[in-house]
Give the backbone structure.
Amino acid sequence: MNVRQDHLTDWLTQARFGMFVHWGLYSLTGGTWKGADTPWVAEWVMRKHKVPVREYEALAGRFNPVKFDARKWAEAAVDAGMKYLVVTSKHHDGFALFHSRASGFNIVDATPFKRDPLAELAEACRDVGLKLGFYYSQDQDWHEPGGSGNNWDFPEKTPEAFAAYLESKVKPQLRELLTNYGDVALIWFDTPYTIKPEQSQELKAFVHSLQPRCLVSGRVGNGAGDYGSLGDNQLPDYPLEGPWEGLGTMNESWGYKPSDTHYRSADELLNTLCGLVSKNANYLLNVGPTGEGNFPPEAVSRLRRIGRWMRVNGEAIYGAGPTPTPTCFRPLWGFTTTKKEAVYLSVFKTFGDKLELYGLRNAVRRATVLGHDGLELSVRQEHRPEMDYHKLVVCLPPWARTPYVIKLETDGPVSANAKSYASADF
């Protein structure tokens, strides 16, 4: 992965937590088409049911999200402890969620709504101090003959047609996004199925020519991204090199799907957040608003719970580095993150009244629970320098409700035996 590791990606690794928003014409369907369910993800309704372009276009005449409130969206992200927001400017169905001169298939020209929600979001995000990024499907476009993905309306696919599509739609719309909405933090590309290496590099250069500080996601394809992008709902086994981002859903679908009630709990989502940061990756957590523009109540309740936790424990997340012992077996109790002279233990499960951590060479000067700074925890350490063996035992507070974070203040920059593990205790 050709990732940028300079100051331009610093804000990304400081932020660590962002909101993904999947919203578009597909949100009207709720994941069904003519009474048939769309397996798994609602935003793929057009492709899963092979809906003809002209038939799908008719949805635009009914798309009037009068309950959309950009300020509420931005404030919900900030209240949840998120530092940036990425919204689908154009998903695979080809519909632009902004006023595009390059294609009439857009929210202003083709719907009764007649407003540009991205312009309203750009203003709202600036007002609340939230960075804004745009998802843009550069490869799949089921509305265009040259885009990939639609083989029922457009069975004949050629490299020449795809190249023409990049020039006639993708680049003009990227120019609009990068010149009409102020500072854009990142362009989040997706599904690079057919794009060639030189085309990925060309899109990256095009984005940077318009906004040099705008980051290009790893899914531009062919290793050309400014930062790496994990698979959907993926948690890596070991810490990653350079800036990376993980992404995930609250239930299973990215787009609004009321029949998908398998929501992960707030604690499970926090577990994923801490797990990703411990592996040196951000967490971009998705919300799929309704066709009217509201966040589902299940999402709202989880965002609020996460926000309460982050207000107490965000120190272990924002700007934090990965676990100091990457080759260890993951502790059963949770995850570790680090800063210069501190180790943070995000505790999700307890086994008795003690917690064990292996490999930390530093002496621990002080151990506290975040949010309870005046109350120190008892610790015991064992060091065998000749074997580079180190064991730390922390006495757990009986009153603390998981998940919580223990902060270990060390006697210098964090140092650890990356290969230490519990079975070395003999």
In short: Residues 422-426 have pLDDT under 50 and may be disordered. The chain has ten helices and 18 strands.
